[in-house]
Amino acid sequence: VNSFDNFTELLNTQKFTHLIVNSSVSNSWFAQFRNLIDIPTLVISNDLFQHTPYKTSDIDLTYDKIISFISETSSFSFNTLNEYALGEEDILNELKKQIQEEFKENFDELPQLIIDKNLTEIKSKVHQISSKFSLLEMNDTYKISKEIDINILEDSENQLINCQNLLVDIAVVLNQVKN
User: Fold this and answer.
1) How confident is the model at residue 129 (pLDDT cuts 50, 70, 90)?
2) Residue 95 and residue 72: Cα distance in Å, rounded?
3) How far apart are CA 108 and CA 123, in angstroms?
4) What is the CA radius of gyration of the chain?
5) Contact by Cβ (8 Å): 175, 113
6) Segment 39-65, tens digit of pLDDT
7) pTM of the entire predicted model
8) Under 8 Å CB-to-CB from 99, ≥6 apart: which residues?
9) What would the pLDDT profile of 58-101 be if each residue is shown by its tens digit?
10) By C-alpha distance, which of 44, 174, 4 is closest to 105?
11) How many helices (H) and strands (E) does the chain have?
12) How far apart, in whole angstroms, are the C-alpha atoms of residue 39 and residue 73?
């Protein structure tokens, strides 16, 4: 969030799963909006907020910090994957390795496919990984990936936006699987 114009309306769309707030934009944002914010929020501040329920970071925000924040606060679990592996650690590790390889490939290839608007190939790639989101108990991401798979050929404009958002969730998976 770099501007608080229309902030209430944006929150009410419920299209956000996380917020990153640049507190240098407005010192009064916390008092004004704290009752509206019920999603994970990262506050970027020169003077780290004290007595705030939100995670804070200094101004040197990096991609890794963002992915780490989203990973820490996202719905994600290995429980279903562990059940699928019948509790066998070797099988679980092999499944994690396969997911990591497949998601890394998609993370590398999807951005160019989105730029090129190669809808058929995007559909194929998203179809291949959608069930893995379910296995990782990322239910909202699973629903979005299924929406992309079903609708991208008929509603490419909205689904390409969903694909860009899906890249963040793929990065979250890659971050979680490597740990």
Assistant:
1) very high
2) 21
3) 16
4) 18
5) no
6) 667 777 766 555 566 666 666 767 677
7) 0.68
8) 132, 135, 136, 173, 177
9) 667 676 776 777 667 667 788 888 888 888 999 999 999 999 99
10) 174
11) 8, 3
12) 9
Question: What's the gap between Cα 160 and its chain centre?
Answer: 15
Answer for the pair 54, 34: CB distance below 8 angstroms, yes or no. no
- Do residues 168 and 114 make contact, with C-beta atoms less than 8 angstroms apart? no
The candidate with the shortest Cα–Cα distance to 160, out of 148, 171, 172, is 148
Under a CB-based contact definition with an 8 Å cutoff, are residues 136 and 118 in contact? no
Q: Which residue has the tokens 């390889």?
A: 101
Concatenate the DSSP letters of all residues of 80-129 into one string: HHHHHTTT-HHHHHHHHHHHHHHHHHHHHHHHHHHHHT-HHHHHHHHHHH
| Angle, in degrees to the nearest 10, between helices 119-135 and 89-116 | 150
